[in-house]
Amino acid sequence: MRADHQDQLNRHGGDRPRGRRRVLAAGVLAVAMAFTAACTDGGGGGKPSAWQGGSESPAPKAAATISEPQADAKDVPASTGITFTTKDAVETAVELKDSAGGTVEGKLAADGKSWLPAGALKYGETYTATVTATGDDGRPATATSTFTTMAKPGKQIRVSSFLGDGQVVGVGMPLIVKFSREVPEDYRDDVQRRMTVTSTPAQEGIWHWVSPTEIRYRPKEFWKPNTKVSYRVQAGGLPMGDGWYGRADLTVDVTIGPSLIMTVDNKTKRMTVTKDGKKIKTILVSLGKKSTPSSSGTMVVIEKLRKTVFDTFEELGPDEGYRTKIDYAQRLTWGGEFIHAAPWSEGQQGSVNVSHGCVNVSMADGAWLFANTRIGDPITVKGTERKLQNGNGWTDWNMSWNEYVKGSALPYEPPTEAGTESTPDPDVTPSTGPTA
Fold first, then answer.
1. How many helices (H) and strands (E) does the chain have?
2. How many CB atoms lie within 10 A of CB 415?
3. Residue in 373, 322, 363 with CA at minimum distance from that of residue 341
4. Taking a C-beta distance cutoff of 8 angstroms, is the pair 279, 359 a contact?
5. Which of 92, 344, 376, 388 is in Cβ range 3.0-4.6 Å of 169 for a Cys bridge?
6. Active-site residue numbers?
C-alpha cells in the first residue's frame, strides 16, 4: 500500500479531506543537581566532596508524525489505515488499540509509510494509534492519534467472488470479483489498494477492471500447475462514492490444477491437448462453417454441462435455427461457442467445417475432454475467419500483458517481493462463490 494515496482512504461520503501533519515535540529532561556537605575525619584532615551534577539528555534522533487519521478525528471510515512519516528511523513500529485497550492486528506496508488493520474496524469505536520510530542512537520517538470511527452506514455495497474456497481450477482461470453497485472511476484506485493476491509459488500478476462492477486478476503467464492462490478484498467500511461503503471483507483460497491446454488449428482441423507440457491427445474437430465461423483467439472453459439443449431459433431465425440435445458441452464464449460432442458431424470432423461456431468433436472425444478438463482450462483457436471479441467470455488471455495492465486503476509496478500483488455473465453463469 503506497502512502502517497493513503490520504484518500479517510474520506467520508464524497469528500476527500487532506490530512494535516502533527509534529511530536521531544521532551527535555530538566537538569537535577544535588549538594553533599563536607565532613572531616577524627584528625580534621578530611577533603570536601566534589559537586555532583546532572546533564541534559539528548533528544532522540528519530521523529514520527501521524497524518491520517488526524488526532481527535470523528466519523473515520472503518476501513482506515494509519498513514505516517518518520525521520532518521532505522526501525518503525505501529500499534493500534481500541477503547478497552485491546490490540488490533495489522501489517506494516512494504514502503514503511503506512499500516493497515487485518480487518475492518468496529463502527462507532474509539481507537488510539501509536507510531514509534527508533534511530541509530537507540532512542525511540513516538506519535499518537486518537480517533473515532463512523456509525454503521445505511448504504453498503456487497462484494462477491465467482470462485469459492477450496475450488480447483485451470491454469487460465482469472480471479473474478464483482460489486453490487458501480464503483466510480475515481474510487477504483482505493478499492484496488485493498485487493491483494498471494500465490505459492510466487507469480507476477495484476487486477484489471472489466466494468464499473467487475474486476479480474490474472498472472503475467498462465498459472503454474498446483499453485495455491489466496486473494483478499478489504472492502469493509471502505468509501466507494456517493455515500456508499463496502459491506465486509472477503477472502478466498483456491488451488490451480494441472496445466491442461487445448490448441485447435483450423488448417489441420485438429485439437492438440497437452498436460503439464506433454502432448497427451490429438482430436479431430469440425469448426464453424463460413457463414458462422468459430472465433480465433484464446478462451477458457467457463462452464461445463453434461447434458443441455441448444435452442437458436430466436437468434438465427426459422431457416437457420435449431433446437438440439447436446452432450459434453463446455462453454467458451457468452455468444454461444462451445466444445461439445456432435455425433452428426463425425464424418466431417478432421476435414470440413460444418458447425455454427462451436468446436465439434466425437462422442468419445467429448466424453474424454469432459472428464479431463476444469473450469479455467485454456483453449486457443487459430486460423479462422473471425477474431475473438474481447469481453465475449473470459477473454483475459486474449490480451497482451501490456494491454491488460492498462485496465488497472493503479500504475503497474513490477513486484519487488514476488508472490503478492501490492485481481461470468450472471444471466448465463450465476456466481456461486462467497459474498461479503
1. 4, 30
2. 15
3. 363
4. no
5. 376
6. 340, 358
